[in-house]
Design brief:
Length: 150
């Protein structure tokens, strides 16, 4: 049997009272609550709304319970029409920072060669690594662009 968000949240609260179908009150876990100031409502869709009459925000309430916002929503049944999600190893900013670092390394090596500096094996190995990273970034960007058009 599948549990619902309300089944997971109510046992974590104290002094829970059902006010009417789909609506409860309890002590707010985000502050030192002497009497129930937290209102909990279950929507017909199974989603949960939280409201503290003392002013605590939903994020503070969830943090005090050890939950996340996703815990306020029932699991979604896959429809088969969901877009493909591809995990990203790097954010766009991280990818650009890596590209900048590797490009700068290649530019310094090129300038050294231009001025007659001999590159040693560790330098050549690092240049090979930089070339591999740049190629990997290009492939990742191409793949991401292709997936966006799927």
């Amino acid at each position: 049997m599948r549990t619902t968000p309300i089944d997971n949240i109510l046992p974590l609260l104290s002094k829970v009272k059902q006010r009417q179908p789909g609506q409860w009150s309890a002590c707010c876990p985000a502050h030192d609550d002497k009497g129930p100031s937290l209102s909990i409502r279950e929507l017909p869709t199974g989603e949960i709304l939280l409201f503290c009459f003392s002013g605590c925000g939903a994020s503070a309430i969830l943090a005090a319970l050890g939950l996340d916002f996703k815990d306020l929503y029932p699991p979604r049944e896959p429809s088969g029409r969901e877009p493909n999600r591809y995990p990203r190893l790097l954010t766009a900013g991280q990818a650009l920072e890596l590209l900048e670092t590797e490009a700068r390394l290649v530019a310094v090596a090129a300038a050294n060669v231009l001025h007659g500096v001999m590159l040693h094996q560790p330098d050549l190995d690092r240049l090979t690594q930089a070339a591999g990273r740049i190629a990997w970034l290009r492939e990742e960007a191409s793949a991401l662009g292709a997936h966006r058009h799927d």
